[in-house]
């Protein structure tokens, strides 16, 4: 995400030389660990980076954005049903908007059953309704603007955001703002642990953990040169507490927070960026250049603290991958006892 501020036509052209129509695929490690991977929406044109953050609207539909090439053009707000295997033609609505910063994309988060967002690199914080219309959050301090990612805390309904004022905690109902860390080195890929105690961010090519209450630095985990970006924390099961990382190099990693080891659980993507929690079923949306994928950790766990624990009725592709996972379990010892 750090190179977004530098994108122009030349940079976009360079990024477009990557593989076209690439598809994330689970590695043997990812299958054996019980993950499933499906496509939520495909059909975006090749771009410097794709549709970024998603949110779950009060009516259960999913709001997202358009792919982005350079710093010109119109943004689009798309709304989809929360089902897999869609294309852009399945959108319930597609509303153009004029962007006000150097970037038409928005960070978005679902908090307290509502969707909030802000354009990257200086956008004001807004509330999005079921139609995609957006209005400023009332009561926020003057001049408060978003920088990169944000996440909805499932414990208290607040927004945790990377802003130009630091890593901040916003109560969207009152407009109250608390600074968690005054400077986090252009932090990106924000997520909050499901217990509401730890904030993880991508910064400087690594994943950094801060204490939510005090802002104290807790740990730094190596990004392994993969370009870590969006993050989500697993809750429940043997991988509980581990951090899923959507990487810029087209891989998805899983960081064991006890050992600091990153295992690559998916490869073959284009350019991973933000991730977003589906609060209705505990799955994680993964932004790619030309599509939005969906990652599940299976029955009995969720990613990011969403409801349902990943126990919703799986689609056919999910059933197939789950069967492969069962087979793989007989061939590979678990990473954990």
Write a concise keyword list for the protein shown above.
five-stranded mixed beta sheet; six-stranded antiparallel beta sheet; disordered C terminus; mainly beta; Neuraminidase; disordered N terminus; 27 strands; 337 residues
Explain the overall architecture:
The chain starts with 8 loop residues before the first helix and ends in an 8-residue tail after the last helix. The chain has 337 residues and is mostly beta strands. Strand 16 and strand 17 form a beta hairpin. The model is unreliable at 1-19 and 308-337 (pLDDT under 50). It is 8% helix and 39% strand. The chain is globular, with a radius of gyration of 18 Å. It has a single domain, classed as TolB, C-terminal domain (Neuraminidase), CATH 2.120.10.30.
Question: What would a concise description of this structure say?
Answer:
With 337 residues, this protein is mainly β. Helices cover 8% and strands 39% of the residues. It has a single domain, classed as Neuraminidase (6 Propeller), CATH 2.120.10.
How would you characterize the largest beta sheet?
A: 6 strands, antiparallel
| CATH top level assignment | Mainly Beta
Coarse shape: globular
> Order of helices and strands, N to C?
HEHEEEEEEEEEEEEEEEEEEEEEEEEEEH
Let me know the number of strands: 27
**Helical residues, percent:** under 10%
How would you state the average pLDDT, rounded? 84
The number of helical runs is: 3
Query: What is the alpha-carbon Rg in Å?
Result: 18 Å
- CATH architecture assignment name: 6 Propeller
Report the span from N to C terminus. Answer: 36 Å
CATH topology: Neuraminidase
For the largest sheet, list the strands in their spatial order.
Answer: 1-23-22-21-20-27
Integer count of domains: 1
Class computed from helices, strands and strand pairing = mainly beta
Give the strand content: 35-45%
Quaternary assembly: single chain
- Uncertain spans, ≥5 residues at pLDDT below 50? 1-19, 308-337
CATH-level-4 superfamily name: TolB, C-terminal domain
């Amino acid at each position: 995400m750090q190179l977004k501020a530098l994108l122009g036509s030349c940079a976009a052209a360079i990024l477009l030389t990557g593989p076209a129509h690439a598809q994330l695929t689970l590695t043997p490690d990812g299958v054996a660990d019980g993950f499933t991977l499906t496509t939520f929406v495909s059909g975006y044109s090749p771009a410097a980076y794709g549709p970024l953050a998603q949110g779950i609207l009060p009516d259960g539909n999913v709001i997202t954005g358009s792919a982005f090439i350079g710093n010109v053009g119109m943004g689009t707000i798309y709304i989809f049903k929360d089902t897999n295997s869609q294309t852009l033609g399945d959108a319930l609505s597609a509303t153009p908007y004029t962007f006000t910063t150097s970037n038409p994309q928005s960070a978005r988060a679902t908090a307290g059953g509502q969707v909030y967002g802000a354009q990257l690199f200086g956008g004001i914080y807004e509330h999005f309704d079921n139609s995609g219309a957006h209005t400023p959050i009332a009561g926020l301090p003057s001049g408060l603007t978003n920088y990169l990612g944000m996440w909805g805390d499932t414990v208290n309904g607040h927004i945790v955001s990377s802003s130009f004022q630091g890593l901040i905690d916003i109560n969207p109902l009152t407009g109250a703002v608390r600074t968690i860390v005054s400077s986090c080195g252009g932090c990106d890929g924000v997520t909050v642990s499901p217990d509401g105690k730890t904030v993880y961010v991508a910064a400087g090519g690594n994943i950094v953990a801060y204490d939510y209450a005090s802002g104290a630095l807790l740990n730094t985990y190596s990004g392994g040169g993969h370009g870590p970006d969006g993050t989500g924390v697993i809750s429940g099961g043997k991988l509980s507490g581990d951090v899923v990382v959507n990487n810029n190099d087209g891989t998805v990693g899983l960081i064991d927070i006890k050992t600091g080891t990153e295992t690559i659980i998916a490869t073959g993507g284009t350019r991973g960026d933000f991730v977003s929690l589906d609060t209705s079923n505990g799955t994680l949306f993964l932004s790619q250049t030309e599509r939005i994928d969906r990652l599940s950790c299976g029955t009995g766990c969720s990613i990011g603290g969403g409801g349902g624990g990943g126990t919703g009725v799986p689609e056919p592709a999910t059933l197939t991958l789950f069967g492969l996972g069962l087979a793989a379990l007989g061939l590979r010892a678990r990473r954990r006892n």
